[in-house]
Design a protein that fits this description.
globular, disordered N terminus, 26% strand, alpha+beta, 4-stranded mixed β-sheet, 315 residues
């Protein structure tokens, strides 16, 4: 097993060349993403590009992580209490947080406990009206065991939500900072269900995050515009564009010509070229993930322990 590294190449220059974006000035940031998102709902996605395009720009979660200590810090939940037996968590929710609008719906209320309940129960309850929408596969929620760990979740009042667990779990709090724990709008979901278009919740999302989805062209680009009412304050750029660029060499070429200002996951063979360019900076941080290889021991030749040992030694 090994701890992974997340690597980003970031251009220091903020100036955009003419024609590189919708505006040739400093109000636009272009990110060369690796692939199109599977969905704009991180509850039903499982890939990094999907999370970056959805949960990181469109939504918030109950908690966030301190970028240095990686410890839980408040986000949509201002604070929380844990019962002495470790089985009851009560979150105090932030007031005055507004959801974005889109062409299908304009919210009439701020974020509250109903949105947390909806976001949990859609994933947990097979009988929930949204559980099977967009194929209803909640891989992360189930894989971390929340479907069985959460015995009950209830609304104490508009700004307090209480979870009851089947047993104490040290990872439970951190789970609510993960991408799949993004909070969706229950009001939007109710409206789309009544209109007979529940899939709009996943394809034209409404969140509380720093940006609003403006346009999506599959395998081409995603356009976002800054949320003017973002609860954490003014968003750094008015426009954010994802230029979908699967080829790693093309991504670097676009970075070098300032057609985009950020690229993810450059190839190791590109590191020297990035480091030797005074206009670029290579960022490397320890990631919170573990990579591993697994053998299917019911199939030959992996049913032979000597073969498995030989492959382990070889790698």
């Amino acid at each position: 097993m090994s701890t992974g590294k997340t690597l980003l190449a970031l251009a220091l220059s903020a100036l955009l060349p003419a024609g590189a974006a919708c505006a040739a000035n400093n109000d636009t940031l272009i990110y060369c993403s690796e692939a199109s998102p599977e969905s704009f709902n991180p509850q039903i996605a499982s890939s990094g590009p999907s999370f970056v395009a959805s949960s990181q720009v469109l939504y918030n979660r109950l908690i966030n992580f301190d970028p240095v200590k990686n410890t839980p810090v408040p986000s949509l939940a201002e604070s929380w209490t844990i019962s002495p037996d470790g089985k009851t968590y009560t979150f105090a929710l932030r007031k005055g947080v507004k959801f974005n609008s889109n062409k299908y719906f304009k919210p009439t209320r701020d974020f509250n406990a109903d949105d947390v309940i909806f976001s949990v129960m859609r994933q947990k309850d097979p009988k929930h009206p949204y559980h099977n929408v967009s194929q209803g596969n909640y891989e992360y929620f189930n894989d971390v065991g929340l479907d069985k760990l959460i015995q009950d979740v209830k609304k104490v009042d508009d700004y307090h939500v209480q979870f009851t667990l089947s047993e104490p779990n040290a990872a439970f709090l951190a789970d609510w900072g993960m991408d799949f724990a993004s909070i969706l709008s229950a009001e939007y979901a109710d409206a789309m269900l009544k209109k007979g278009t529940p899939e709009n919740v996943d394809t034209w999302p409404i969140g509380t995050g720093p940006y609003v989805l403006q346009q999506y062209k599959v395998d081409s680009l995603i356009r976002y515009v800054a949320n003017p009412n973002y609860w954490e304050g003014e968003v750094p750029t008015k426009h954010l564009i994802f230029s979908i660029t699967p080829n790693v060499e093309t991504r670097l070429a676009k970075l070098q010509t300032n057609e985009c200002q950020i690229i993810p996951a450059p190839s190791p063979v590109q590191f020297d070229a990035i480091k030797n360019n005074k206009d670029l900076t290579l960022h490397s941080v320890d990631a919170l993930n573990v990579g591993y290889l697994a053998f299917n021991t019911e199939k030959k030749p992996f049913d032979n322990v000597l073969v498995r040992q030989a492959l382990n030694y070889a790698t």
